[in-house]
Design brief:
alpha/beta, nine-stranded mixed sheet, 5 helices, 9 strands, globular, disordered N terminus, Molybdopterin-guanine dinucleotide biosynthesis protein B
Length: 174
């Protein structure tokens, strides 16, 4: 069975402090409430090897109910597995052997899985041209939404609406 065919993969992307971890927590909580097993992968995009202290977002994922969590940065996967370099496909291969319904990925903007894009300020607009496979866009009050976007778009304050859309997406068969 090909990767992603028996479990849904969804990425949450945005620039630093855009609310990615909070959206991840919301989705994890909702999915586990519905009886789904969730795994998470976070890209440590700020450089350096992730330390236990820098793995606080993964701890938040676990506290929200994720069955399996990992953070990757500079060739270190914070599952105490080391090799010269980690690609997302390598981490997903490890997760393949663990029973999960959903894998939520925080970061990895250049990968091609379905994505939720968070926009906090005008400069973040360029992200829409840099990423592929956008499922929906969440924007902050600080983001100037001048015209409709080509994707389902929700204010970050419309939690019930975007959670419903994203859960529908995650329940959908691949």
């Amino acid at each position: 069975m090909a990767l992603g065919q028996h479990r849904k993969i969804l990425q949450i992307v945005g620039y630093q402090n855009s609310g990615k971890t909070t959206v991840m927590e919301q989705l994890i909580t909702q999915a586990t409430t519905e009886g789904l097993r969730v795994g998470t992968i976070k890209h440590h995009g700020h450089g350096g090897i992730p330390t236990i202290e820098s793995s606080k977002d993964s701890a938040r994922h676990e506290k929200a109910g994720a069955s399996v969590t990992a953070v990757e940065g500079e060739g270190t996967l914070r599952m105490s597995i080391h090799q010269s370099n980690w690609q997302l496909a390598d981490i997903l291969a490890i997760y393949e052997s663990i029973e999960m319904d959903i894998i939520l990925i925080e970061g990895y903007k250049n990968e091609h899985y379905p994505k939720v894009v968070l926009l906090r300020q005008a400069e973040d607009q360029s992200l829409l041209q840099k990423v592929s496979n956008i499922v929906c866009v969440l924007y902050w009050p600080t983001y100037p939404l001048d015209k409709p976007l080509d994707y389902p778009t929700f204010s970050i304050q419309e939690k019930a609406q975007y959670i419903e859309v994203l859960m529908r997406e995650m329940r959908r068969k691949s």
